[in-house]
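Propose amino acids for all 474 sites.
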């Protein structure tokens, strides 16, 4: 069958997030220039509801450089330890010292469970379609085609909707990165030169950001990404040395935050913990993808380590800095200490490098899916660079307009990941298991509750974040 032809998969070593190598269609199939058909040609009528159980998608995947379980775990940690973990003290400031760890564990379990749901549903869908793998947008499309009658109406629009959330989320991350790098550099340079506005620092960063986003083959950035990973772990250790120095008493901190501020905590923590694009990329590229799930699989082990690290940084960071905890704990470090300045510069360099990796995702979706086929062959390279420049400029403009790091993180976490990480996986599972999920079926009830929770988190978190962003300018 055509679906059994060899395919490339996502290389997580080169890209963090739902990124795709060149000549790989963002919707899940190899591009026509490779000589293979696109999966977009599959009609809903061709999807057999009595698929041959002997077909195993895992056996038909062909990755040129598959990762082992240990390598996958390392990549997962690398993809989850960025600006999110540095924002956890600020998140605990909104939740309280008692509620913070408990809620982080609950959100961690919820995020992990939803990732399991998504990966299992994609596997079942690939098995029914006899395809080695599908991207997130196309998984949503073909799942809706298999679902109840009402879902078929939304199927043609599903890829665009998922792409939209992915683009907004990834560009939101890029905005956060610009603000993060500029604010950390400003704190260091202000000690040695005349202080200048953080927006000037962003403007200085614009050209380097454009140039680094011009790198079309991200494998060239792989060595820098490895260095960035080492910097992150060393930097976190150095931060903890400051945190544990003369740690105040827990009695000086709030144990329970306000209900209103909890939505900010929720958005920040979800932004930090949920990495749906990373998870899909890693599972697709594993040598033994069957070891990704399970009670002691790579996903559970990785998320356990991540949740523990986030709680440690958030809990003790909040004890140390209290309600003065900023959107990144690096901004709370002493401005005049050489070691603290080194930490800020280290993380600024690390996040600057990672900007190119995160910006690659919206560029690839926009260029490959919506622009490339509209451009004549002789001008494609020029317009691709225009697209890359445009993405960088847009993220720069938003970073300049809303330089509120903590609120930025909370906004994009609540708006995008409530949908991508909670509601959409539940919708996909309902449709993939249909009609086995009856009106009283446990899976149906459970997934409906997840969808409602995701919608409430999206609406409330987005409203509170936007309200606080507006009030911060008043």
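Proposal:
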């Amino acid at each position: 069958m055509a679906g059994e032809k060899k395919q490339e998969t996502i290389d997580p070593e080169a890209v963090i997030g739902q990124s795709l190598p060149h000549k790989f269609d963002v919707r899940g199939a190899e591009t026509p220039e490779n000589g293979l058909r696109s999966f977009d040609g599959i009609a809903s009528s061709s999807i057999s509801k009595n698929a041959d159980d002997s077909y195993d998608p895992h056996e038909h995947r062909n990755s040129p450089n598959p990762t082992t379980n240990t390598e996958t775990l390392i990549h997962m940690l690398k993809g989850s330890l960025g600006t999110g973990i540095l924002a956890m003290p600020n998140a605990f400031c909104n939740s309280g010292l008692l509620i913070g760890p408990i809620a982080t564990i609950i959100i961690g379990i919820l995020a992990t469970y939803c990732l399991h749901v998504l990966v299992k549903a994609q596997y079942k869908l690939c098995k029914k379609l006899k395809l080695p793998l599908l991207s997130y947008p196309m998984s949503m499309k073909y799942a809706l085609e298999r679902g109840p009658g009402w879902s078929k109406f939304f199927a043609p629009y599903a890829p665009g909707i998922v792409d939209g959330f992915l683009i907004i989320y990834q560009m939101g991350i890029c905005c956060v990165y610009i603000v993060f790098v500029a604010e950390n550099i400003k704190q260091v340079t202000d000690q040695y030169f005349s202080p200048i506005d953080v927006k000037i620092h962003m403007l200085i960063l614009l050209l380097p950001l454009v140039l680094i986003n011009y790198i079309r083959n991200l494998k060239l950035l792989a060595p820098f990404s490895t260095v960035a990973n080492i910097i992150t772990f060393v930097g976190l250790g150095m931060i903890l040395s400051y945190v544990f120095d003369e740690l105040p008493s827990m009695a000086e901190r709030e144990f329970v935050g306000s209900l209103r501020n909890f939505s900010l905590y929720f958005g920040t923590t979800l932004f930090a913990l949920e990495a749906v694009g990373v998870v899909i990329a890693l599972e697709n590229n594993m040598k033994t993808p069957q070891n990704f799930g399970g009670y002691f699989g790579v996903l559970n082990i990785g998320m356990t380590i991540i949740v523990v690290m986030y709680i440690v940084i958030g809990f003790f960071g909040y004890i140390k800095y209290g309600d003065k905890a900023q959107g990144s704990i690096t901004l709370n470090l002493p401005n005049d200490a050489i070691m603290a300045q080194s930490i800020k510069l280290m993380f600024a360099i690390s996040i600057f490098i990672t900007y190119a990796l995160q910006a690659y995702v919206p560029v690839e979706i926009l260029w490959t899916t919506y622009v490339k086929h509209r451009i004549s062959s002789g001008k494609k390279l020029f317009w691709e660079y225009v697209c890359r420049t445009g993405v960088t400029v847009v993220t720069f403009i938003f970073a300049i307009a809303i330089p509120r790091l903590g609120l930025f993180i909370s906004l994009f976490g609540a708006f995008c990941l409530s949908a991508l990480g909670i509601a959409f996986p539940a919708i996909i599972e309902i449709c993939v298991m249909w009609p086995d999920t009856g009106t009283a079926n446990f899976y149906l009830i459970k997934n409906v509750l997840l969808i409602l929770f995701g919608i409430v988190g999206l609406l409330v978190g987005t409203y509170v974040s936007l309200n606080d962003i507006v009030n911060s300018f008043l």
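The chain has one domain: 2-34+54-137+169-403. Residues 1-51 have pLDDT under 50 and may be disordered.
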